Amino acid sequence: MALIRSWVESANVADCPFPLNNLPYGVFSTADEAPRCGAAIGDMILDLAGCEAQGLLDAGGTFAQPQLNGFMALGRAKWNEVRARLTELLAEDGNRDLPLVRMADATLHLPVRVTEYTDFYASKNHAFNVGVLFRGPENALPPQWTHMPIGYNGRASSVVVSGTPIRRPMGQLKGETGPRWAPCERLDLELELGAVVGADSAMGERVSVEEAEDMIFGYVLLNDWSARDVQAWEYQPLGPFQSKALGTTIGAWIVTQAALEPFRSPGPERVNPLLPYLQESRPGLYDLEIGWTLNGQVMARTNYNVMYYSSAQQLAHHTSSGCPMRVGDLLGSGTISGPAPDQTGALLEMTEGGKTPVTVNGEARTFLENGDEVALFAEARGEGYRIGFGPCTGRILPARP
Amino acid sequence: MALIRSWVESANVADCPFPLNNLPYGVFSTADEAPRCGAAIGDMILDLAGCEAQGLLDAGGTFAQPQLNGFMALGRAKWNEVRARLTELLAEDGNRDLPLVRMADATLHLPVRVTEYTDFYASKNHAFNVGVLFRGPENALPPQWTHMPIGYNGRASSVVVSGTPIRRPMGQLKGETGPRWAPCERLDLELELGAVVGADSAMGERVSVEEAEDMIFGYVLLNDWSARDVQAWEYQPLGPFQSKALGTTIGAWIVTQAALEPFRSPGPERVNPLLPYLQESRPGLYDLEIGWTLNGQVMARTNYNVMYYSSAQQLAHHTSSGCPMRVGDLLGSGTISGPAPDQTGALLEMTEGGKTPVTVNGEARTFLENGDEVALFAEARGEGYRIGFGPCTGRILPARP
């Protein structure tokens, strides 16, 4: 697929993350108007509530809401219809009288009201590396890992939009004679892609991988901040809890499945066949470069197609017990790590649990310091265009003792 | 405290679970009217939306909503004001012209829109017994267990009201040569009390145990249905996931903290001192008999005051990382078990992992069979009155292969 040219000239520039091929959805406000839904195009935001008010498209008034849940609930046929209509309006011969807002003049908000949040653990490199650090090499990869996408329920209330500061948590840390109460000393990031669920499933019913794919509205960048010392002390046997509740940052732009369609990519070879309910009829991953910077320095770059399970497989597994899913559910892919240290999505892995510091702008780092800023990035590259996700950043504030 | 007599005579009967001392809140509908909030009194429901419509009390219109979240969000001063007003209206010399509905003519609904659901693990007997079965006696009680109330995030979408059938889940079960896909063979209940959070806390801020207690609106019976074979295969290292997502049943009536106030009770002796952020200035447990029946036969009876951590301590710990809490959050106490087999809150414990069947109406049982009905019960006993919770039941439907 080639670049689809737009009359919004900034969308046609070679390295623009938001060409007409992309059209990610978000929620924005301006000095004079409350949060509403928009689509990114070049360096502008198309005011979708404004478009609907002008009679240019029909989304049942949902674009005037301060999150995309209402629009998502209208279903895939409506998603497709609106995408086709926006592509028409913004094409070179489109409508030049659209309500556009300069992105520089807008404030971006959380694009969805996150109903529930689940975090998976689907990069084999990451699972193995972290397993070695927490449990030793012989128990590194749990026995069920190659048979199911394991995950845990995270805390939806702690999901925040890119740019929100993240406070270093206090917590119980393991001491010599018992736990001590102290600021987290091993604060980390996790480089992930989040899938946004755009449809409900009923309690007691299972969803196939194909149906699951149809339920996914789109993807966001996701940083699952982690307090590794709190995690080590608390996580057995019930899994991570407060170590993962200090904040999870997502990007402000939801890149739709439609925009990523040309980038479908197979994943790594399977160690063993999957049970039928997890088998895919076509690749569910994407060829998508993804990485992160610390205080502006690129720390790691890898590809989303290293993952062992796709979001559709994760969603299908999520319903295997009959668990009902709802519009606005967010599924974290799990930390995305390639095999090499400069492909890892967490400092825990990159520094081998803090044993091998890395250098950031000349300073040694094992874990995150106060004032550090982490930014995630991702990009799919087509012929003459890119699909970007916008920033996903957070800066560390000192703990409140 | 003695019985407070009501002009609703059925509320004054000796074994009535809903005397005027109780006044639990719920949501009900009738043949001719949609779900709205009510309070149980004797064998009647006081229509609180109707009371407000008649100008008898003021709750900002929240009682006309189909869940109690709006009322809870009004805050503790309003909770106290409304409770005092209802006590006045229903007293012997009260208002005999109130909108009452016979409980037998009403359908009860989920009383809250559950925002997020967290399940704890706070009975030392249960944690030890289950730990032996899953990990052996030497690793039974995790090392942090006596220092913090451990828990995991459950799945709010799977919380249903008493009486909702529960479908036996399919799942991955560990086999000889790899997992197999089969109906759960070790389906279990968990006897718990759920605390309903009635106030928000801000991200990045911690809540003390005293503040946490003030945030708790009330308590419900809670059965956290569990697929033990799915759990055993999936739960390491991230904790239980699909094994706990098949359904969680809560009672339809929220018993307020105010009603339980006379029953405050200290818990078991502490193994070690707690860190200051978990210390209580007064007992946070209640002297509350709690138990369960299987197909009508009483299987176990114990007391909520065997728990090692109170809901207020759990809520305080939940915010230790700065995790924001919201109105409608539900905190499961963890399975409530006394030391003896006929005091255990799960079949896993009662049958020693299925090794020692129990007899139910003359039939042997290790785990739950299709058609089985589990009912939880709880009661605090005052002088001449009882505080009941109403039923919390569920019947097992066969799996959908």
TrEMBL record, chains A, B:
Instruction: Provide the GO MF annotations for this entry.
Output: fumarylacetoacetase activity
Q: Where is the Fumarylacetoacetase N-terminal domain?
A: 21-111
Q: Cite the EC number.
A: 3.7.1.2
Pathway field: Amino-acid degradation; L-phenylalanine degradation; acetoacetate and fumarate from L-phenylalanine: step 6/6
| Cofactor dependency | Mg(2+); Ca(2+)
Protein origin, superkingdom: Bacteria
- List residues traversing the bilayer: none
Listed A to Z, the keywords are: Calcium, Hydrolase, Magnesium, Metal-binding, Phenylalanine catabolism, Tyrosine catabolism
Which ranges carry the Fumarylacetoacetase-like C-terminal domain? Answer: 117-390
Which NCBIfam families does the annotation name? fum_ac_acetase (TIGR01266)
Designated name of the protein: fumarylacetoacetase
- Organism encoding this protein: Paracoccus angustae
